[in-house]
Design brief:
The chain is of the alpha/beta class. The chain contains eleven helices and 13 strands. The strands form three sheets. Strands 7-1-2-8-9-10-11-12-13 form a nine-stranded mixed sheet. Helix 3 (115-122) packs across helix 5 (147-159) and helix 9 crosses helix 11. The longest helix has 13 residues, at 147-159. The radius of gyration is 21 Å and the shape is globular.
């Protein structure tokens, strides 16, 4: 595919976050793509799971201007019992209700963008990348879920001399990873759960393919950081901590392990998207607990273990 065709490839983006400092080295711009093959119970970005645009609805913000009542094509926005209600079974995700919702009660999550549009936005902060050793990170969702867009955007970014990171759940075809390997400087690779049965129960996907892809990337010489979400009562177990340490030690190209403590912000997002919550314990783990997790892993590996 030539450069012009790369630039015109379209993808579904739900956020472009500037000045990211936790998604790879230096100051970065993180591009979040919609769509994921996993459905993790603790997902911090549930708005990324579905490929299609979605409406985030916060009725408490409604000021009663009437725009969405009058302009929603299927008439999904109504007043019932003195309150603003969105009947999601009627919603066609057109985003019309968000166009003049100045109070922010209705927000469209996800918009189609061309590679050249995204890259133009990313390149606005080029001086910050050059001074800090940063660059562009693709996240999601799962970037490989939109393979053509991800491959084209990475190729164009490398063509502009950008340092690139890819955050991935690892659940994709190996051929996809090998295709983008030349254009990825660092893989931020999720290692969510080491027990196959628990992995399937917590994420909705089998573990084996993820482990096979991780091993293949390491064998190919890819630079890797293991990103490990730790959720109290689910995977905060000694055997899982030991498995993380053993995996980091046995692979040759793991630069670090990032521990990602559970935070309950994803639960509030689920409510705004009209979906039920998944986690009963909705509190942040305290600092002593997180430090204990880190130490339990660091005691068994020489690979640096830090909070991500």
């Amino acid at each position: 595919m030539n450069d012009k065709r790369n630039a015109l490839v379209k993808g579904m983006v739900f956020d472009i976050q500037k000045f990211s400092i936790h998604d790879g080295p230096g100051i970065r711009t993180t591009v979040f793509l919609k769509g994921c093959p996993l459905s993790c119970l603790w997902c911090h970005n549930p708005e990324s799971q579905q490929r299609e645009p979605e409406i985030s609805f916060i009725p408490e913000k409604c000021i009663g201007c009437g725009w969405c009542f009058e302009n929603c094509p299927p008439k999904g926005h109504v007043m019932e019992n003195g309150g603003h209600v969105l009947h999601r079974e009627l919603c066609i995700r057109c985003g019309k209700c968000t166009e003049k919702c100045y109070a922010g009660a209705n927000t469209l999550i996800g918009r189609e963008m061309m590679v050249e549009e995204v890259l133009a936005d990313v390149l606005k902060d080029l001086p910050f990348y050059e001074n800090s050793g940063g660059g562009m990170t693709l996240s999601g969702g799962e970037p490989l879920y939109q393979m053509e867009f991800t491959a084209a955007l990475l190729a164009e970014a490398k063509g502009k001399g950008l340092h690139t990171c890819l955050e991935t759940c690892g659940f994709a075809q190996l051929s996809q990873f090998m295709r983008i390997l030349p254009d990825v400087d660092l893989f931020l690779y999720d290692f969510k759960e080491s027990d196959p049965d628990r992995h399937l129960r917590y994420t909705g996907a089998p573990l084996q393919l993820i482990l096979e892809n991780l091993a293949a990337l390491d064998k190919a010489g890819a630079s890797l950081i293991l990103r490990c979400p730790i959720i109290p009562g689910m995977n905060d177990r000694a055997d899982h901590f030991h498995a993380i340490a053993d995996k980091a030690s046995k692979l040759k190209h793991v630069l670090a392990v990032n521990i990602m403590p559970y935070h309950p912000l994803g639960e509030s997002k689920l409510g705004r998207l009209g979906r039920p919550g998944q986690i009963e314990n909705k509190s942040f783990p305290d600092e002593n607990t997180v430090t204990g997790w880190i130490n339990a892993i660091q005691d068994r590996t020489s690979v640096p273990v830090t909070r991500g």
